[in-house]
Amino acid sequence: MNAIAERWISSARRECTDRLLITGRSHLHRVLDDYVRHYNVGRSHQGHDVGLRAPDDDPNVIPLPTALHRIMCRQRLGGLLNEYHPAA
């Protein structure tokens, strides 16, 4: 479990907190809450059992090729994090 925690902390620092000037405890909580949502919903993960899916993705849904859909970009934390989803 220690390796998993270290990996998450490393990702949070590299992708988020190292790129922002945190102004206080409440700002840090807002930034980390937004990053956790991005990490679990909008960020793809590598691994043999995940197949570049986010942890909250439905494992029974097979994503269609992106050539068939328009892609919508959703920015978080002022454009620091980007999430891409098929447009409706």
Care to describe what's here?
There is one protein chain. With 88 residues, the protein is α+β, with helices and mostly antiparallel strands. Helix content is 36%, strand content 14%. It has 2 helices and 2 strands, in the order H-H-E-E. A two-stranded antiparallel sheet has the order 1-2. Strand 1 and strand 2 (81-86) form a beta hairpin. The longest helix has 18 residues, at 25-42. It starts with a helix and ends with a strand. The mean pLDDT is 77.
Give me a quick take on this structure.
With 88 residues, this protein is of the alpha+beta class.
| Radius of gyration over all CA atoms, rounded | 15 Å
| Element-by-element helix/strand order | HHEE
* Strand numbers in spatial order across the main sheet: 1-2
The average pLDDT score comes to: 77
Q: Sum up the overall morphology in one term.
A: globular
Largest sheet: 2 strands, antiparallel
Q: How far apart lie the N and C ends?
A: 39 Å
Number of helices: 2
Strand segment tally: 2
The portion of residues forming beta strands comes to: 5-15%
Could you name the ranges where pLDDT drops below 50 across 5 or more consecutive residues? none
**Share of helical residues:** 25-40%
Structural class, from secondary structure content? Answer: alpha+beta
Which properties best describe this structure?
alpha+beta, single chain, two-stranded antiparallel ribbon, 2 helices
Layout of strands and helices, then pairs:
Blueprint: H1 2-15, H2 25-42, E1 71-76, E2 81-86
Antiparallel strand pairs: 1-2
